[in-house]
Amino acid sequence: MATLREIRRRIGGVKNTQKITKAMKMVAAAKLRRAQDSMIAARPYAKAMRTMLGNLAGEVTGSAGPLFETREIRRVAVIVVTADRGLCGAFNSNVMRAAEDHLRRNYGALLAQGNVRLVAVGKKGADYFTKRGPAPAAKHVGLFSGLDFQSARQISQQVVDWYQKGTVDRVDVVYNEFKNVAQQRVMIDQFLPVPPIETQRTGSGVSPQYIYEPSGEAILADLLPKHLNFQIWRILLESNAAEQGARMTAMANATENAKEIIRDLTLSYNKARQAGITKELLEIVAGAEALRTAD
To answer: What CATH number matches the domain at 4-20+252-294, 1.25.10, 1.10.260, 1.10.287, 1.10.150?
Structure first.
């Protein structure tokens, strides 16, 4: 049985841990508010950009460009978005497990041939796949400490360059989408070739007709890179907000668990202390009885 000193030491250690988890919960809550505001602000723009792109692609069918063309898949790239840090529950493991399942289920033969390029965004994913494979062809670590649009542009331009050169024939993205503070949803989206986009229709079900200047092709060529860059930016914002929500929930649970452990340890401490007092009283009574009998 643990001594009183050992129990006191454990109670002190758990209390210190509880202070840390409580502070981390508060920090995550503050970061979540900012991340959530940025994510919510980006969603309407991304939706409007997608709608405009769908209208343009519908108008210039047949000359929409190589980024819309579906090719035979001989080589594939997968962007896996994780966090740079842990202590956020199953946030990272869910994404990495989903990415592994996606590769094994859909690209098993290509994986065995070494025709899969992995782009690891986030330290946790980069470290995991470096050890487990496939080794990342590109790593983007430390982005979330100071997330900016330039980071999204670099990732987008890298995979677009691979696709245009024929290095890969398809690009997928695996990431956590923010649902609410307590829930995240793992998403697997096709990034390239650009998936078909529904054109906007009027209330009568007829697609509106637009006149483009200088031309639909020219506008599409200028708009498409912006769309792809912004889709990666939206994904990073979603993942960042989901990470902070997961960390806040995990630290709140850890704080509650520490509270329960402290309560159980305090009960054990009181029992051990009472047992020690009872033992000392019995020894005193036994000694007094022995002296009385000797007299």
So the answer is: 1.10.287
Q: Which of 11, 35, 39, 88 is catalytic?
A: 88
Tell me if residue 88 is catalytic: yes
What order do you get walking across the sheet with 138-140 strand by strand?
A: 138-140, 116-121, 76-81, 170-180, 183-192
**Average pLDDT by stretches of 10, the chain with 295 residues:** 84 94 94 91 85 73 70 95 94 96 96 95 96 94 92 95 94 94 92 75 58 76 89 95 95 95 92 84 80 73
Rounded to 5 degrees, what angle do the CA atoms 279, 283, 289 make? 145
Give the integer Cα–Cα distance in Å for 110 and 87. 34
> What is the residue extent of each domain of the chain?
4-20+252-294, 25-247
Residue range 25-247 forms a domain whose CATH class is alpha beta
